[in-house]
Every structure is written in C-alpha cells, then in structure tokens.
Amino acid sequence: MDIPKEQIEEFKKLIESDESIKSDIEKLLNYLPYCEYELIIYMIEKKVWKGNRPKPPKDFKKGSGSIELGLFLYWLKNPKEIDLSSFTLGEALAILAVIAALNYMLADSKIDETNYDFFKNGDELIYLDGSVLSIEKYATYDQGWFIAFINLVETTSRFLWYNNGKFPTTPPPRIKIEGKQKNTVSIALLGDWGAGNLAAKEVMARISVLKPDYIMHLGDVYYSGTPSKGKHYFSLGEEYKNLLDLWPKGYVGKSFTLNSNHEMYSGANGLFIDALKSAGTPFVAQYGASCFALDFDGYTLLGLDTAYMGKVKDAFMIGSIGKPSGFQSQWIKNLKLDPKKTIVFSHHNGFADDCTSVSPLWSEIREVLGDDPFAWYWGHVHNGIVYDMPMHIPDKNGEGNGFSTTTYARCLGHAALPYGDGESLQDKPITWRAQNKRTDKPKELYNGFAMLTLKSNGGAVNSILEQFYDTSSKAQPVYQKHLGKNES
After folding, report:
1. Residues linked to residue 378 through DSSP beta bridges, in sequence order
2. Per-residue pLDDT band at 32 (split at 50, 70, 90)
3. Which tens digit of pLDDT belongs to each residue from 150-176?
4. In this protein, which residues make up the domain named Calcineurin-like phosphoesterase (predicted)?
5. CA neighbours closer than 13 Å in the CB half-sphere of residue 198
6. CATH 3.60.21.10 in the chain, residues?
7. Is the pLDDT at 434 greater than 60, yes or no?
8. pTM of the complete model
9. In the prediction, which pLDDT does 400 show?
10. pLDDT at 488 over 50
11. Phi and psi (nearest 5°) for 62?
12. Within 10 A of 92 (CB to CB), how many other CB atoms are there?
C-alpha cells in the first residue's frame, strides 16, 4: 500500500509547527521503549522469550513503563503487522501516514519477529495484575488499543482537546439523592464497562435485575471513546455504541459517568459532547460537568475527573485532579465536606493494585479534603479488589514513601474486559479479590460490579452496605461488608 508522500510530510509539519506539541509527542514516544521493556522482562520471567536478553533503555527501572503499551513500538516500526482491514482505503492510508511521520522520532524496537510470533500465534500470559496479555478481543494486545493510541497522537498533534485543553468550568451539580424505599438509597458501581461486548451486556443485565436507584460508571469507553463526529479520528461513534446505546433506558437522570484515560485519547470530545451534552443522554443530571457531588443524609458521594488533568507523556495512565489552585480542587474545597463522611469515586487508582506504592493522586485528594476520605472506589485496573482497612504500605529503601490510611479502598475495573488472577495480588493486604474462574475460559475470571446501599435513621446515615457481584451468580453477592462495622 503506497502512502502519498504529501500526507506524511503534512503530518510531520503539523508536529514540527508547535514546540509544545512536538515536546508532548516526543515524551509520549520516548515512553514506549520503557513499556516495551516491561513486556520483555515479563516474557523472560515466564520463560517464553527466545534469544538473549536485550539491554534496557537508558535509566529504565521496573515500573517505569506500562505493559499495556508493550507492543506499540513494535507495531510502529513494523506497520505491516497492523490489521487495517476494517478501515476504508483512505483511513488506512491516513493511519499509515501518521506512523510513517512518527518513525524518525522513534527508538528501535527490541522485540523481534520470533518473539512477536508468541502473541501472533495466539499464545497468552496472565500478567501480575491479572491483565490478559494476548491478541484476544479487548485483551491487552488487541490492536484496537493501537488505533486508540493513533487517536491520541491525532488529538495531541492537532490540539483537538475538548475546551481547548482547559479543564471545563461547567458548574458541577450538587444533588440530593433519594431511593424508592424510604431512608434508603442504592447505587450500582461499575468500572471500565464501555466495551459493548457480551461481558458488558451481561453485567448490565445483572444490575438491571437488582434495580438500584442509581448507576455510576467509573469511566473508560473503548477503545478511545470517540465522538460521533470528528474529521481526524478513527473508529468514530464509540461513546454512543459502547456506552450510551447500551445504557438502561429507565435510568435517564439517575446515572453518572466519569472521565478516563481512554476517553482522553479522543480529547474527551466523546464524553463531553455525546455522553454529557447530547439530548436525552442518561447522564443529564450532571449538566455537562465531569465531576459531581451526591448528598444523602450527611454523607457525600464525590465523583471526580482524574483524567482531564493527566499527562500525554504517560498516555494519561496516572490520574490527577489538577493543581490546588485549579477549578476542580477549588470546587471540592468550597463544598466544605467532612472527609470522614465522604465517599470518593474516580477512574484512576489511589495506590498500586499490589499495594507497593501510592499514586500522587492520593495526596492531591487528601489535600483538598483536609484528610483521607471515608471510602474510595476506583476503576482503571481491570480487577475486583477489596483492600484491607487499615491499609499500610511500607517505606521502600528508606525513601520516605511509607503510607497508612483508614480509608476503605476498593478497585472495580472488572466490568467488561478479560482479566485473570494476578499473582502480584497474592499475600498482599487484600481482604477479598475476584477469583471465580470462567467455565469457558479457565485462565480468566468472571466480570463483575459492586452495589452500595446507604440507610439512614433520623436524618443520619447509620448503615453502609457494599456488595460485590459477578456474572457467575444470578442471585447472591460474592462478597459483602458493612462499612464502618466489623461484620461481613
């Protein structure tokens, strides 16, 4: 397939025309060798790597890359391996032109054809956090993620960010919520659900049977939450196809959704324009804002946008609410919340899934609240995990990064994508984690979600029950606990 040289040169000029854009693209591309090496060392550990161990990139430290992007550098250097059959000829040429324009900025891939064939031939590994390293649909090396990366390059190069790269200042709503039953409100919580696949449909069907008062999505619409319209994006309409069109019709105004790294790949345009602002959206209660506060008899459920203020250089993998002087931080401060009666919801995680390190996001939220929140539910990591309370992460090598909290911390990014039983979660301060193996795919686990039920007496909350469900069971929760009490 011959790529018109003028398309390649046009994209090169686009990158070179603005120093800040060029810098962002360079940082993103410089991140890829670290991601690739994370994959290489894991393949070596699992004894599936063939040949000598390559030298690591300069200044590489384990954990400095994301294994999710582990094959991207190889694909960029070997575009013949990319399946573009689902695109029109014009789209395919445009994708290849972007790749060709980036190549002069890329390091060489350390993965060769022999080792790439491990995945190409259909083999798989279960990563430390449970991620499925294979080319299975929606697994880590499904090439749809690579097209999402190309969308991120398009967004960055053409500066297509929603609201021109400035955090949207639409006033976030503060809503008093109430349930069908007096003095009780129930909320279904699901993360990383926007895949439009059978697993996602099964999870939502299970939620519909339970008939919660509200449903909250903790973000991620795949592959990059593309808007319905957009001249420079590939695979348009994902925000509709994988989120809005599959959302239960009876929950208009009773639904909430959060921003995520994947929706940022298309500049958050799909989220803000389609999900939050289009007519008849289930998320009308948010009034176009990506953060919100829900009040119930003294407790506040705080939904935060931890993606918009993330960074291109790490593909928005690390969450942030922005600077203390920023719009979102000031909004939270002005709410004057009691941290011990605040439950936080975000897409990004507050600490590593295996409890080995704390994210900068934790201190950002602690600072604006004045203390750690009562509870915090996040997605991003494709697993279902209930962490111990209190939680203590020891200091590493005397670096002063020890961490302790009495927050009830939970991960529930397991609503749609394939995942397995991650070995790094074993023997960690984890009270419960998803472990029910699928009957059809024994290496993988059932997808799931959580239910949160708050009850009050005399205008004050006196019971908070959390329940985790998965699609292996039609009736009973696989885990439950009354928060604030020792019973389960």
Report:
1. 346, 411
2. very high
3. 999 999 999 999 999 999 999 999 999
4. 186-383
5. 3
6. 164-482
7. yes
8. 0.96
9. 67
10. no
11. -55, 125
12. 17
25 near 105, Cβ under 8 Å?
Answer: yes
- Beta bridge partners, 455, equal 184, 463
Asked whether residue 487 carries a pLDDT value surpassing 60, the answer given is no
- Burial degree of 420 (CB within 10 A; 0-12, 13-18, 19+): buried
Angle between helices 360-369 and 327-335 (to 10 degrees): 40
SS3 state at 280 = coil
The total of other beta-carbon atoms located within 10 Å of residue 370's CB is 13
Tokens linked to 45 = 């550990």
How many residues in total does the chain contain? 488
Provide the CB-side half-sphere exposure for 9 (13 A, CA): 3
Residue 389 burial (C-beta neighbours within 10 Å; 0-12, 13-18, 19+): middle
Sequence-distant (≥ 6) Cβ neighbours of residue 67 within 8 angstroms:
35, 38, 39, 42, 127, 131, 133, 140
Long-range pairs, 113-118, Cβ under 8 A, ≥24: 113/78, 114/50, 114/51, 115/40, 115/43, 115/49, 115/50, 115/51, 116/71, 116/74, 116/78, 116/81, 118/43, 118/48
Spatial distance between the Cα atoms of 80 and 96, rounded to a whole number of angstroms: 10
d(CA 241, CA 238): 5
Q: Which residue type sits at 348?
A: H
* Distant-in-sequence, close-in-space partners of 23: CB < 8 Å, separation ≥ 6: none
Which residue's entry shows tokens 């719009």? 327
Q: Give the N- to C-terminal CA distance of the chain in Å, as an integer.
A: 61
- According to DSSP, the β-strands at 391-393 and 403-405 are antiparallel
Q: What average pLDDT does range 477-485 have in this prediction? A: 92
Please, what CATH class does the domain formed by 164-482 belong to?
A: alpha beta
Exposure b/e, 225-244, CB count within 10 A at least 16 = b: bbbbebeebbbbbbbbbbbb
